[in-house]
Amino acid sequence: MELRHLRYFVTVAEELHFSRAAQKLNIGQPPLSMQIRALEEELGVPLFERSQRRVFLTTAGRAFLARARQILADADAARLEVQQIAGLDAGELRIAFTTSAPMTNLMKRVLTSYRQRYPRVTLTLSESPSERQRDALAERTLDIGLLRQADSAPPVAGLSFETLVDEALVVVLHQGHALSRRKHLSIADLANEAFIMHPHDVGTAVDGKIRAMCERAGFTPRVVQEARESTTIVALAASGLGVAVLPAAVRCIQIEGACFMDLSEPDAHTPLLLAKRRDDTSPLVQAFVAMCREVAGSLHERGQPPN
Questions:
Q1: CB contact burial 138-168 (16+ within 10 A = b; e otherwise)
Q2: What is the CATH number of the domain that holds 184?
Q3: 75 and 102: one domain?
Q4: Structural domain contains residue 307
Q5: 40 and 50 assigned to the same domain
Q6: Pairing relation of β-strands 244-247 and 92-97?
Q7: What are the tens digits of pLDDT across the range 64-73?
Q8: What is the pLDDT of residue 151?
Q9: I want to staple 165 with a disulfide (CB 3.0 to 4.6 A). Which of 17, 23, 146, 306 is the partner?
Q10: Is residue 279 part of a domain?
């Protein structure tokens, strides 16, 4: 029996509705139902009576609810005590992220979980190009970077980089575009298209990756428009101004007319990296790194996409 099982149980018991409880816990309803059934099997008694319309606590469920709440309260108190001892009950953590990172399930879940687990830590967040993040880390004006890095990027002395997720690249175009009717797209199919990309001074590793893929396919992308924000690029592509290639996390941008298509190239992906200083022993940084690994592992274990 794990604490998360108790949290799942308490949330369902308070909501008396599996769908609402799953939404509150930010997990799918089927996995939540499986976890509750596993808990009941471990205890050897049913905790809920289920019907098509309602969910009720059994007598055993009501008794277990009081115990579960007390166990969770004791666990929270113990966590706060050790956080105070370890220096995790206060302080500031400076985190920068590349433009598409906040759209990923990974970053959203990491930030939510970190705030819940360490509520007294101030998270100072900023959007910053990957190159500037590396400079800021080296200059010690930044603690954590969530960035993308070109394959050819030279190593940076004193910094460590860890891949959290390897994200697919997708083509963004107008839903009426002739290419949108194809089942498969390769980068070569875009040779005669107008491209929308980030400006050079933004310093995104994704654009460098796209240009390299285009060159290997025998052409140089014809850039007709530049925009700093991924949301703006998606909107411009949806309007028919051109095509764009972006990390798959942009699929969450709901803009009328936008069509997202996978690329067939095996290297059509871009890793999201966690960067930090090698000599940084801050408990706040170590806890954030551990949280990123925990969430990335959970997404992989559940077979859920990072975006």
A1: eeeebbbbbbbbbeeeeeeeebbbeebbebb
A2: 3.40.190.10
A3: no
A4: no
A5: yes
A6: unpaired
A7: 999 999 999 8
A8: 61
A9: 306
A10: yes
Give me the chain's average pLDDT, please: 88
Q: What is the pLDDT of residue 119?
A: 85
In three-state secondary structure terms, 282 is coil
Closest CA to 205 of 145, 108, 271, 139: 271
Give a three-class secondary structure readout of 183-217: CCECHHHHCCCEEEECCHHHCCHHHHHHHHHHHHC
The stretch 18-47 carries a mean pLDDT of 90
256 within a domain of the structure (yes/no) = yes
Q: Which residue has the tokens 């998360």?
A: 4
- What is the band of 82 on the pLDDT scale with cuts at 50, 70, 90? confident
Expressed as residue numbers, the domain containing 172 is 166-269
> Do 29 and 66 belong together in one domain?
yes
Task: With a cut of 70, say whether residue 115 has pLDDT above it.
Answer: yes
Q: Is the pLDDT of residue 33 over 80?
A: yes
DSSP state, residue 248: G
Domain count, the chain: 3
Please identify, among 52, 85, 118, the residue that sits at the C-terminal boundary of a domain.
85
Dig out the tokens for 189 from the structure.
């199919």
Cβ atoms of 235 and 144 closer than 8 Å:
no
| Measured distance CA(265)–CA(149) in Å, rounded | 19
Residues 134 and 253 in one domain: no
Residues 35 and 181 in one domain: no
List, for residues 230-241, the tens digit of each pLDDT value.
899 999 999 999
User: Of 68, 85, 102, which closes a domain?
Assistant: 85
Contact status, residue 222 vs residue 191, Cβ threshold 8 Å: no
d(CA 105, CA 24): 15
| Predicted TM-score (pTM) above 0.90 | no
* pLDDT reported for residue 76: 83
